[in-house]
Specification:
mainly alpha
């Protein structure tokens, strides 16, 4: 797991540290945990509720074993920043090797607890336990996958985008360990579909089908693939156009046009393709269709201005750029392009003013700087 992931996880789970109290181990305390050698004068994290039970029964000199293990889980699972974190993590690793909880070792027992928390919609608790398992065993696919599921469910209940990103991170981490982990491919397909990354969704779903999944999951993927087919083709087409394979991209996008002429973004990229081929009249026709479907789309206004400017219709180009700037007054590209319109109309002073403004808005914009230098040399 990367640093940013740990930071967000720590912030989400930090509250669990408040449910732990630290007790200094003294000679008068009795601690019976097989295989654990502790340094002298070490403070041990104990789950507060379990310690309270001992206090109520008058057993003040015994550190409850279950409370200690739970305290360790809370500190390690929450990725606490305390100095003794590594010591506590190593204690859990030792416990996982020597102590059984019924028929299960520690990690398996924590996984069961985490799944139970998730099923009861206590998602933060579930994430805490899966995180502890991941700290003990960094390649535990069950822990990482179920942590992702819990993040995904929590992101839905709390409507927090960053939690959905953490879910994706977990599933991708699963595949970094084992690219044939079909459940991660299944889940990533739906998450990428919801992000409108249709090619990635399609790729993961097809991989999941190839690896073998349950009949129920297979049916879900079949429905998803039916919905994603044309959207994946659209994504494939516009990526080709943007990468310079314009004619190939246009061929793919044009094949979708009859059935999806209401997709303004499809029409937009067809227009971009024609503009890149310098077929400005064809491009202009598509951009005007886009404006009828998505009024006020700034980038389309910019593209219309480029086409009109190239076709010599400076008056209409000026009109579109002025409207676009009204909607997005800090857009240096629009300001610069309006300056180009004035330059071609022979209005040099206004062009220079606009190039100056564009440069002020975006000092690193090479195009604005080039035009500003050009017009300054012209006026020398």
């Amino acid at each position: 797991m990367h640093t940013k992931f740990d930071q967000i996880l720590n912030k989400l789970l930090d509250r669990f540290v408040n449910e732990v109290v630290f007790i200094e181990l003294k000679e008068t305390h009795r601690l019976n945990i097989d295989g654990i050698d502790l340094p002298e004068n070490i403070s041990l994290p104990v789950y507060l509720d379990d310690l309270a039970k001992n206090i109520k029964t008058g057993d003040l000199e015994v550190i409850p074993t279950v409370g200690l293990i739970k305290g360790l889980v809370y500190i390690v699972g929450a990725r606490s920043n305390i100095e003794t974190y590594e010591l506590y993590k190593n204690m859990l690793i030792s416990l996982n090797q020597v102590r059984a909880f019924g028929d299960l070792n520690l990690t398996a027992s924590l996984l069961v607890d985490g799944i139970n928390f998730a099923e009861s919609k206590q998602y933060a608790n579930a994430i805490l336990y899966f995180s502890a398992v991941n700290a003990i065993d960094s390649d535990n696919l069950d822990a990482i996958y179920n942590m992702g599921r819990a993040f995904e469910d929590l992101s839905v209940s709390e409507e927090r985008e960053e939690l959905r990103r953490l879910a994706i991170n977990c599933f991708e981490s699963c595949l970094a360990i084992n690219d044939d982990f079909e459940l991660a491919h299944f889940s990533l397909g739906f998450l990428y579909y919801n992000e409108e990354k249709y090619l990635q969704a399609e790729t993961h779903w097809i991989k999941a089908l190839q690896l073998g999944i349950s009949d129920e999951m297979r049916e879900e993927i079949a429905v998803g693939l039916g919905r994603v087919k044309d959207k994946a083709a659209y994504e494939r087409g516009y990526e080709m156009i943007l990468s310079g394979r314009v004619e190939e991209g246009l061929e793919i996008l044009k094949a979708l046009e009859d059935e999806h002429d209401e997709w303004w973004n499809l029409l937009f990229f067809i227009g971009v393709g024609y503009r890149m081929l310098e077929q400005y009249e064809d491009a202009l026709g598509y951009f005007l269709k886009v404006m009828s479907l998505n009024t006020g789309h700034i980038q389309t206004m910019n593209e219309i201005g480029i086409c009109l400017l190239t076709l010599g219709d400076y008056k209409e180009a000026e009109r579109y750029y002025k409207e676009a700037i009204r909607l997005s007054p800090q857009n240096s590209e629009l300001v610069c392009n309006l300056g180009i319109v004035h330059f071609h109309r022979g209005d040099i002073d206004e062009a220079r003013r606009l190039f100056d403004k564009a440069h002020e808005l975006a000092p690193d914009d090479e195009v604005a700087k080039m035009w500003l230098d050009h017009i300054n040399k012209k006026l020398m």
